[in-house]
Amino acid sequence: MIFKLSDIGKAITGVTPSTKNEAYYSNSGYPFITPAEVKNTRYCKTPTRFVSEKAYSDYSKRFIGERSVIVDCIGSDMGNACLTKEICLTNQQINAITDINSELVIPEFLYYRLSVMKEYFHSIGMNGSTMPIISKSLFENIEIDIPDIDFQRHIVDTKC
What we know:
Elements: E1 2-4, H1 5-8, E2 10-13, E3 25-26, E4 30-33, E5 50-51, H2 53-58, E6 69-72, E7 81-83, E8 89-90, E9 94-98, H3 107-115, H4 118-125, H5 136-140, E10 143-145, H6 149-159
Parallel strand pairs: 4-8
Antiparallel strand pairs: 1-10, 2-9, 3-5, 4-5, 6-7, 6-9
C-alpha cells in the first residue's frame, strides 16, 4: 500500500543549538548528528559532537528516538539515509521519521526503502533554487509503497 511518510511516523527537522552557549554541548551525552554521519550506512556514524541535558531541555521537541530514520535533505549530496541507535538531535539539514508505527513498517525496512531514493530526493529538491532542499512539509508528504510486515521482515533479515 502507498503511505505518506507522515502516516508512518512523526516528521521532525533538526536544529543546531547556539554554539555561543557552551552549556548546550558536552564531551558525552546525546549524539548530535550532522550530514557527515549520514552516509547510507545502516546506522549513523559515531558523531564528533554531543549535546547536553540543557540542550535536551531547551530543544526536547526536536530530539528523535532510537530507530528513527533520518535523511540529509539539503545540498548537492542530499538523500543519504541512516537509522539512529539512540535518542539524539540532528542539525537542520536533516529530516527524520520518528515514533514509527511498527505495526505498519519495520524501521530497518523504512531505512532500506529510503536509502535507495537519492535520485528521487534530488528531483523533488530542485525547486528552482541553486541549493537543493526538501522542506519538512515536502518530506512528510513523500509517498512510498509499504508491503506487508512479513515481506518487510524477509527483506530486513536478508540485509542483516
